[in-house]
Amino acid sequence: MSVVSKYNRISMVYGIIELPVELLLYGRWREEALSNLSGKVLEVGVGTGRNLKYYPVGCSVIGIDNSTGMLEKARKKARGMRNITLYLMDAEHLEFPDDSFDYVVTTFVLCSVPDPVKALKEMRRVLKPSGELIALEHMRSSNPFIARIEDLINPIMFFFIWDDMTRNTMGNIEKAGFTIKKAKNLAFQDVFKKIRAKP
Hints:
Layout: H1 3-10, H2 14-34, E1 40-44, E2 60-65, H3 68-78, E3 84-88, E4 101-107, H4 116-126, E5 127-138, H5 144-161, H6 169-175, E6 179-187, E7 192-198
Domain Methyltransferase type: 42-134
Keywords: Methyltransferase, Transferase
GO molecular function: S-adenosylmethionine-dependent methyltransferase activity
């Protein structure tokens, strides 16, 4: 089953599954990362639209996702938000011209994109030279004990929601041609990070 099929299948319950961690951790991370953005913003993997309420009214946001089920949920959240536009689109094939955006945002997305480096190269392409990638992501820990736990959990997460917990996301961002300007550890030592990178 493809990643699109899996996310279409779980879209009805995804919000419920994610709710505890959203209330405890994700919500405040999203607000801190997004509430001061400006200009043109591309959110890759908008999902059910969890981020939408945190964007300032003054910025123009385009959100994309390759799951119709997830986008349906996001469109409900976006009603009345005139600065939000949503499209069905594949992160590995962004349908925008070069140098289009001031910011590209990913939140807990690079763990499930089939080819994250290819998607990140597309994100770099559509960013303006002065633009910035903002990523809230989880990844393989440098702590051997934590990494072992991730290895044990990973097959279950991958089977149900195509979530690869063992990716070297920092390395993938650099492979795609970005320069990491800041990486802040958020939780479980270095599993969850906020990353800011320049094209």
